[in-house]
Specification:
226 residues, seven-stranded mixed β-sheet, 7 helices, disordered N terminus
């Protein structure tokens, strides 16, 4: 879901070198019939004091600092696009400029609806099309009760355009992928995934820098108990 917050990332990439920690959390809850919901959160609260000061500036380290109005404008475009996508409901996009926590939520009728929304983000130029892999990020086979989390939301191109000092800040950035199910998990393909005691949820926690370098990934094939 990182692409949902492409505009937020463009903002945070300007100041992330001054933030002690960034946490990105993707939470997918999937029903047996393929319906579900997704929450995607970028948490910059540990650097809120510095970020508040930066937001008052015109530029920093040679980068233009967007205003709150500009960030809200881009986020509103994402929200409106989600609301217009068939199969996407209960869209909510919270933005807290005091704590610097940004959260996107929606319900989906099917994995296909969710993937279509992601594709529309690219088509509508909400983000750089070259950053979006040409494939579905999520898949679910109802009959076999098999869920696929495909590819990483890599930011290699945007990361490559940053200064070396800014790139180093990603060492402390964490990406957490949590998936919850109605049925117990039978097996997972990603050996780094932790399965909850009730076997109905799995979590992957990786370093964003490792995702960029492709030394780690959040791809996973999860087979549920029939």
């Amino acid at each position: 879901m990182y692409r949902f917050f492409g505009k937020i990332f463009l903002f945070t990439s300007l100041v992330i070198s001054l933030v002690s920690c960034i946490e990105i959390v993707e939470e997918v809850t999937l029903q047996d019939d393929g319906k579900g919901k997704i929450d995607f959160t970028i948490n910059l609260s540990q650097g809120k004091t510095k970020l508040s000061s930066i937001m008052l500036m015109d530029s920093i380290n040679g980068y233009k600092v967007p205003s709150i109005e500009q960030v809200n404008y881009e986020l509103d475009k994402i929200k409106m696009l989600a609301e217009k996508t068939n199969g996407i409901h209960n869209v909510n996009l919270n933005r807290d400029f005091n704590e610097f926590i940004f959260d996107f939520h929606c319900d989906f009728d099917s994995i296909e609806s969710l993937n279509h929304f992601i594709s529309q983000l690219k088509i509508k130029n909400t983000l750089d099309a070259s950053l979006m892999p040409e494939q579905n990020h999520f898949q679910y086979d109802v009959k076999s009760k098999t869920y696929y989390r495909n590819t990483n939301y890599l930011i290699a191109k945007g990361h490559g355009e940053l200064k070396n000092a800014d790139k180093a800040a990603f060492v402390n950035a964490k990406y957490i992928a949590i998936t919850r199910f109605e049925s117990p998990i039978k097996s997972v393909s990603n050996q780094s995934a932790n399965i909850s005691p009730n076997k109905k949820a799995t979590m992957l926690k990786v370093n964003v820098q490792d995702l960029i370098k492709e030394t780690e990934n959040i791809s996973n094939k999860i087979i549920l108990t029939k």
